[in-house]
């Protein structure tokens, strides 16, 4: 929602820039027709160009997304071994998760004993922190 | 059963962004991925566009972790239908076979991928993972070494090799792997800290001095790394308690250890301010620091 406003700003800036360019071209051809080659570009065209440029730059900065810190190590301050140690290409699946997280229907058929595992007590953990 | 979006009041865009964050930062919270991903696939597949395929892959791997073989199978079928001749999908099929402990079939599948494309790194890495899963650590180490001779820049593989060496208690080679990682990532405080821990484990005065220096480097890169702070305290105290050092070195290390102890105290005080148990926990930290007597054998 906010970004469409800034996209509008960039659009307006670019249009103004194009308009100033056309005005300058038209002024040049007018100069050529009236043979007054020594007149400089009117100041309002110059001002419009500069203003349009500033507005476009300001708008693009807002669209461009999150800025990152220049310091390479400051981004890493939040990284922990929890995620650094995970190597997705080498993931193994022979861990107890295969048994612990087995869905309830499979449990009912395999373990009919009195002290069967309660249906996934670990599921309660999910509700705590969805970080 | 309530859906994730109802329980936590999130939109499908937020769920998709969360999945992307977990994917890019290598989180292995498979239960959550399965819940969020399953709902995204079932309810919002049309809105996801081309993202849906990578989400299928992510959810499939998480489903294998959670023993949700039905979900893994459906994801695999969808991917096979969309990308019929893809090596990446074949690798996922191999991973499913590995999860079902059909290692021979998985190996055959990976060999067929490698016959088609000898440079496919993913299949080679899965073969090494199969060796690891079967407990054949020495062969896995040998294969991984051969792999790294060809693909020297693969940081994940270097870290995996260092972990394998640590499991085999071959700390010198583990230190070498971590040195490679530190060279390519000089700003990463975690590699410095892990290297320092390996050196500390190796023991001996030179290694202790080196470990103290690398703990200090890790702290320089990230002054909030508590593990490095504790490591600095331990290595400095260890050096100071050693009988073989000169008086000056002993004095310096006592100073370093005292500084590290003060920083630890301060960090615990700052962390616990505003809570009722602050005084007790600070006292506990002080007692713990005093009781960490290092006796040289």
Automatic annotation (TrEMBL), chain B:
Pfam families: TPR_EMC2. TPR repeats lie at residues 155-188. Keywords: Endoplasmic reticulum, Membrane, Repeat, TPR repeat. It comes from the Eukaryota. GO terms for cellular component: EMC complex. Residues 90-199 form the EMC2 TPR-like domain. It is a peripheral membrane protein. It is found in: Endoplasmic reticulum membrane. Part of the endoplasmic reticulum membrane protein complex (EMC) that enables the energy-independent insertion into endoplasmic reticulum membranes of newly synthesized membrane proteins. Component of the ER membrane protein complex (EMC). Belongs to the EMC2 family. PANTHER family: TETRATRICOPEPTIDE REPEAT PROTEIN. This is ER membrane protein complex subunit 2. The lineage of its organism: Eukaryota, Metazoa, Chordata, Craniata, Vertebrata. The gene is EMC2.
